[in-house]
């Protein structure tokens, strides 16, 4: 399984999920199934509903988890978690794990088009059934929209210049491949420099997030996951860039605070009560040893929150 994707912060996640016999858990981002496998091995008397929108991941995890009938694989975006669980008559769960972003396999498989150093058509879809591809964004979106994507999802300082360079390149011929796009980025950031490598990373990350609507998906799914939790149930989020980590921090903070009335207002009129306790004031990171063994774990940040007892699910 390790060649497909090495699970990040595996033991830490298992410890903090507080698995208990009879419990029901959700792996929102199955991938190759590394975290799910460790969950059922640590506590076989649980039920796991595991989501991925990538058919390839579902097939790979199906092989890795074939001996575990307590795991149900669901090919769907995690924003549909609530309805998918309702269809299966699951009203509440004891824990949810999000391990966000793409798997190593998705990045490494050239034809998926996620990687700027592997020649492929500009695809970047996690769900091959979806119609929007990165090629469509690069070749059809306006200069303004492209600049917005690079700035908002890649935090790219030269977003406007990148968008302008794309418009210029595509006026001659459509930009069809990853390497063609990488060349356009280099035309702005310089060839072969460290800055250029980082710029390619930021532009490709931004496009990937836009193609898969990653932030909107997660912003919709995290409050749903919290709603599904039973009292003392936990939600764990492993993120790999500041945009996702910020969303997690803000949603946790809002749900832990409850009342949203202005500070100067003495009597609460919103009626909102805290529903979460934040377990990690600061995100947890992978150990130095893991970071040396698995480069992907270097950017990982794990945030954990626990449902308060007030909820009667
Ligand atoms: C980092 S990998 C998970 C790896 C997994 N924890 C393991 O150990 O093998 C993230 C996975 O989540 C999936 N994914 C990302 N966004 C998703 C979404 N909105 N809905 C469902 N799956 C998603 C990707 O297709 C990918 O397979």
Can you tell me about this structure?
A seven-stranded mixed β-sheet has the order 3-2-1-4-5-7-6, sandwiched between helices. It is built from 13 helices and seven strands. Helix 1 (10-16) crosses helix 2 and helix 11 (214-228) packs parallel to helix 12. The mean pLDDT is 95. It folds into two domains: 10-105 and 214-307, Rossmann fold, CATH 3.40.50.150; 131-211, Putative methyltransferase TM0872, insert domain (DNA polymerase, domain 1), CATH 1.10.150.170. Helix 2 (34-42) links the parallel strand 1 (24-27) and strand 2 (47-52). The protein has 313 residues and is an alpha/beta fold.
Helix-strand blueprint:
Blueprint (H helix, E strand, L loop, with lengths): L9 H7 L7 E4 L6 H9 L4 E6 L2 H10 L6 E5 L5 H7 L5 E7 L4 H5 L25 H7 L2 H12 L4 H14 L5 H12 L4 H18 L2 H15 E11 L2 H16 L18 E3 L9 H6 L7 E7 L6
Helix pairs in contact: 1-2, 7-8, 7-10, 8-9, 9-10, 11-12
This protein binds S-adenosylmethionine.
Give keywords.
Rossmann fold; alpha/beta; 2 domains; 313 residues; DNA polymerase, domain 1; binds S-adenosylmethionine; 13 helices
